[in-house]
Amino acid sequence: MAHTPSDPQEGQQVGDEFSDVEDIEDIEEINTLTELGTTLIQAILEREPLVNIQDLIDAGAPLWFQDNEGISPLYAAAYVANEKLVKIFLADGAVWNAVDNFGNTAGDIALSMNDEGIYNLIRDAGIRSELLLTALSSGSEPPQSSSSLIISDGDISAVGSTDAFLASNLQYTVDAHGQEICLLKLEDGSTVGVMMGWEREIMSRTVDELCSDHPRLEGGLRVLNVGFGLGIIDGFLQRLPKPPSLHVIIEAHPGVLAHIREQGWHQRPGVKIMEGKWQDVVQRKEFLDLGRFDVVYTDTFAENYYELYKFFMLLPNLMAGPEARFSFFNGLGATNALFYDVYSRVSECHLSNIGAHVSWSNVQVDGDRDKERWGETRKYFTQPLYHLPIAQLKQTV
After folding, report:
1. How far is CA 56 from CA 83, 296, 312, in A?
2. Strands 180-185 and 170-174: what pairing?
3. Residue 246, burial from CB neighbour count under 10 angstroms (0-12, 13-18, 19+)
4. Architecture in CATH of 197-393
5. Digit-coded pLDDT (tens) for 163-174
6. Phi then psi for 196, rounded to 5 degrees?
7. 47: which residues sit within 8 A by CB, 6+ positions away?
8. What's an example GO BP annotation here (predicted)?
9. Can you give the residue ranges of every domain in the chain?
10. Which of 41, 262, 286, 318 has its CA 20 to 30 A from that of 22?
């Protein structure tokens, strides 16, 4: 009896056989690409002539390939200080932010060797990539791309997802050193600091840069802060020589709002607590009726850069002219020197696009005592210097 594909049993057998053939072909392709990629990296490290390396690329050696140690062709080119190869690889689409098994990128290798030329090439490629991805995402959800760490990282935990964070439980406690801390406990049992005491110096410097010589300080500034956390920056704002005449705090997390009430912030003169996500609050008539602000600051948790970018777009309608000042907690990519540099510059480009000038200052945050003091809860910021941005709208004619 002849069987047709409609026979369930035979159809399954034919499908399995076809699948097996596809699997074999996939394995063979993977093996070929792995061999070509490995050979390409070895050729670069052995400083073979450019013609040999180009032959391997023409033969299909993938520039995205990483060996068992996480070394990529771009990484190898940076290691042997071959600027010409770095330019070729970046032009052909090499992944600028690929990390090795120790978390180092090709840019980090160049930086460690004081190779400013190669470092700048890789950094600038990263800036172009991120600016392009943000432009492509304008007016829609950001595209998912493995080459971007700033737009969206696909994390749906309470660290990477706003909705998951807002549904999470926070713990306000006091550590062994007597400092108040706010912790988020993750599903794996680990904890992440939503706000920690080591940020206090950053917040103090930020308020100083935003307010100390502000021309409207003596009359009482109108300030907006998005994201309360421990209320560190709000505390510094309240301790200005002249407290703010209006101090608006936008906060969405139920646990933080409960903490705000316990601390009596609702009763403070001039303080107005607005509950909800900032994306919703800024559209409410109650908020719009408040007018514009002399100082605007934002420090939200579990929001990706795309949300910060959207906040940038609102600034011309939030800031009270060229004398008004804006800052944000700049933790963008702060687990890696290259990422931190790239994303700081990307944010400056986007602020420039809305008509703002950005000035930068550095805050030292790498004291040995602090590292020991805050331990694992400071994983999200490992750089020795904090880059503090202050933006002002440019004067229009």
Report:
1. 18, 53, 45
2. antiparallel
3. middle
4. 3-Layer(aba) Sandwich (3.40)
5. 666 666 777 777
6. -130, 160
7. 80, 82
8. methylation
9. 26-138, 162-191, 197-393
10. 41
Q: What is the pLDDT of residue 14?
A: 42
Q: What is the pLDDT of residue 195?
A: 66
Cite the DSSP H helix spans in 169-253: 200-211, 232-238
CA dihedral 227, 231, 232, 237 (to 10 degrees): 90
**Residue 148 has which token pair?**
């971007």
**Alpha-carbon dihedral angle through residues 179, 258, 327, 366, given to the nearest 10 degrees:** 20
Task: Kindly state the tokens that stand for 111.
Answer: 């930086």
User: 3-class DSSP state for residue 297?
Assistant: strand
Alpha-carbon distance values, 397 to 26, 322, 330, 359, 394 (Å): 62, 12, 31, 21, 10
**Helix locations, the chain, DSSP H:** 8-45, 50-58, 73-79, 83-91, 106-112, 116-137, 162-166, 200-211, 232-238, 254-262, 278-281, 285-288, 305-318, 337-353, 368-374
DSSP string, 96-139: TT---TTS--HHHHHHHTT-HHHHHHHHHHHHHHHHHHHHHHTT
> How many Å apart are CA 384 and CA 367, to the nearest integer?
8
Rounded Cα distance between 279 and 318, Å, is: 13
The list of the chain residues with pLDDT below 70 reads 1-25, 137-168, 177, 187-190, 194-195, 302, 367-379, 397
Which distant-in-sequence residues (6+ apart) come within 8 Å of 210 by Cβ? Answer: 295, 297, 325, 327, 390
Candidate CATH numbers 3.20.20.70, 1.25.40.20, 3.40.50.150, 1.10.1060.10; the one for domain 26-138: 1.25.40.20
- Element of type H or E holding 248: strand 246-251
